[in-house]
Amino acid sequence: MLIAIISLSILGAALGLFLGVAARRLAVEGNPLVAEIQDILPGSQCGQCGYPGCAGAAQALADGSAPITLCPPGGRAVVQLLAAKLGVEANLSDVEESVPKVAEVKEEICIGCTRCFKVCPTDAIMGAAQQLHSVFREACTACGKCEEVCPTESIKLQPIPVTVQSWYWQKPPMKEAA
Amino acid sequence: MMFFEKFFGGLRGGVHPEGKKQLSAECPIRSVPLPQKLYVPLQQHIGAPAAPVVKVGERVLKGQLVAAAQGNVSAPVHAPTSGVVSALGDHVAPHPSGLPVPTLTIESDGQEEWVALAGIEQPLELAQEDIAARVAAAGIVGLGGATFPSALKLNLSRASGVQTLILNGGECEPYLTCDDRIMRERAAEIVEGIALIAKAVAAQEVLIGIEDNKPEAIATMQAAAQGSAIKVVAMPSMYPMGSEKQIIQVLTGKEIPAGGRPADIGVLVHNVATAWAVQQAIRYGRPLISRIVTLSGGAMRTPCNVEALIGTPVEELLTVAGGLVPPVARMVLGGPMMGQQFTDMRVPVVKGTSGVLALTASETGQAEASPCIRCSTCVRACPIGLLPLEMAAFIRVSDLASSVALGLKDCISCGSCSYVCPAHIPLVHYFNYAKGDLAAQERGKLKQEATKKLADARNERMARIERERAEAAAKRKAAREAKERAAKEAAEKAQQESSASESA
Question: I want to staple B80 with a disulfide (CB 3.0 to 4.6 A). Which of A20, B62, B309, B503 is the partner?
Fold first, then answer.
């Protein structure tokens, strides 16, 4: 009887101590999900989602207070990655409406003020003072920051032109069933 | 062969469309009068477009390099005739989208003046790498229609080792007779080309597979291959026998694993017309600037086979065939099963154009789609052993992931399922859409990763600049303070000295 009580108490104390130490030692700061979501997001800190930067958006997504379709520059790729990460159904119909875009410089009215490339989060704009600016399409996420700062409305988001490389068959029209 | 056929049924699935090859099979290859203008697209192959190396207004000679290959997967383009480069800009492309592509326009001067060619008297004495290098320089791509750069295939196969080299003379698409004619008329050249390819990859066994609906081609090739190690094999006529996966399965009994390549099982497949182009390139130094094209279809006045320069507009070819007999329901580039529909007659012949078909309404067999009755005819027709009806049902509701799980990526888009469907459901259209959409998603993901790296790099750079600025400011401040302190001390010292001298 006494032996049982003592051994169980010792066992309990030892395990309690172990768990207490483990909780201190192996503590995880913050929600790891937030960091993982932040890895998925573009990281361009454009603020189009209404949250302060991608970290804020990641926090909101982890809380479940923001929809996974919140990131316009990320497009469908990000929505699908988020859906897989968060285990929610991806509703792509909202995203597909906005066709993929990139910034484009209207060369006649660009004054070479350098404001746009200073704000570009992905270094997608090339230029120098008093020189024409130009956009690298592959690097542009269409975050729209350049559009906001352009004094002459020369830089604008335009739909990406369809080329032979990017074209593919449309879905057959849904007109079966009668 | 009969035993094999009976035992294994030759091929899994497959369909038997009406051949219609008699329309043009007996017509020898004709030449086309030199067109005034040739439209040479910079991309006629799978991979990166070639980069132009000539300027507008420059005179080029026949066979001169006009656009160089760029990147690992690419092929150069050569001038099909001598003349002046009159434009470099968009021109309608032989592509189902009908979108324009960057194209060199060459105005011919009618002189057909060749550039200096570096032919070789004893081609079989070339080293393996040299054969592949010459094939690459000649801009040769798979002439069966896939247009994959041939030299790349040779190099990859040499690296992985080739047991069996298969020459594809299947030509299973209805109407097309270009490979049939080239085998009948240029057998000796083809056999030399095959020997060169076999040498380039050190193949141990060489087979030429020809469908048994081409007995003349089989006989001619057999005669030409007499005394060599090349074996001519007659295959049962069935669509899609000329597909790489199918011809390998029928000739070797081996099946390419899902997602794999022929090289995985030690096989290399080239089209017979590609072998001819290889021979021309190495023995005579001639780059690929022409190909055999079949002109056929119920609405073509006199179906025939022609050797057309790359870049010849289709309208020029039609004059050779006596024009069209209206009403034309559909114009197709390539075969009726996998070819591309087109409407603009200025479309040029490219390296992958095997045929130009003018089809009547009864030949297209177009009908309104009705609901799937789950008869599973498509399952029996699928040469890969997939479930077309299930895959299409998933794609209809945008569940692409499930259709991929059913093997969408192994679909060869042969169209057998659409052909047999009694409800006329455009099954292969669903699969082509889904493959395109998946590829677009993949491109989106790659771009996303790339831009994320850029954003991270920029953030890091900004932080570093900020830090450096702060450090520099701190340094300046420290220096200023030190200076002030020194000045103060000096002043104090001077004061002390002055007071000391005063007291003294």
Answer: B309
